[in-house]
Sequence to fold (283 residues):
Amino acid sequence: MHLWEALVLGLVQGLTEFLPISSSAHLRILGEALPSAADPGAAFTAIIQIGTELAVLVYFRREVWAILKSWTISAVRWSRPRDQDAKLGWLIILGSAPIVLLGFCFQDAIETRLRNLYITGAMLIVFGLLLGAADMYAGRAGRHRAPKTIDDLGARDGLWYGLAQALALIPGVSRSGGTITAGLALRYSREAAARYSFLLAMPAVFGAGILELVNALGEKTELGAGWGATIAAALVAFCVGYLVIIAFLKIVSTYSYKPFVYYRIGLGALVIALVAGGVLYPV
Fold:
């Protein structure tokens, strides 16, 4: 993979990570369309995602610091969390458990068979429809009662968020799309679902990225782009991702997710058609 191709993939990662349209699907599809015509791989994808999660850490730095401080006090004292920040810390740990467990159990399938473009296209469509249905439900429910906020989050809802995030191990589902869909179905506001989705993603994405980074340093996995290009792509993803967070949170506080639903369905149908027509290779 050439440097400019890695930079394009970093740009796409930054643009799509926080939107409910699946960044891993876009990297998988674009990798086949670039001159190198190759899957960038799970390792490259996980490492450049560190860039976008650093953008989340910078944007939500005050909230993250408050959560870490309150959670640490609660954990050291081994006491029931007395404020919302400590509670959020425990809920993020609970919500991260499903993706860690499933990622460990199905690592081989995630890095190979589940990256089939037929599966990616189908997941874009199916979870686009689910996002649309959840958005409609949330809109109708909001007319009769106030939507939930992050302060209403409990263990049961936190686990549902986590299970939805774990589905994003399959390219095409979308980490933010899965968790936002779950949040809307549980009657959280669009903005609350999006904000918690960002916070919940940090342990899983940082963990996966660091693991792949260690494996690559130990030469257990191969980086097709090379270290220089991969680091450059992660930096691009960080810069673009930070701007996308700002814009996305403003958009979802005013508008529905319908444009993303239509985009997912259209892209999924296009991918399946291109693979069936021999333009793209499924694996």
In short: Residues 114 and 180 are 22 Å apart (CA to CA). The mean pLDDT is 87. The chain has one domain: 3-276. The chain is about 75% helix and 0% strand.
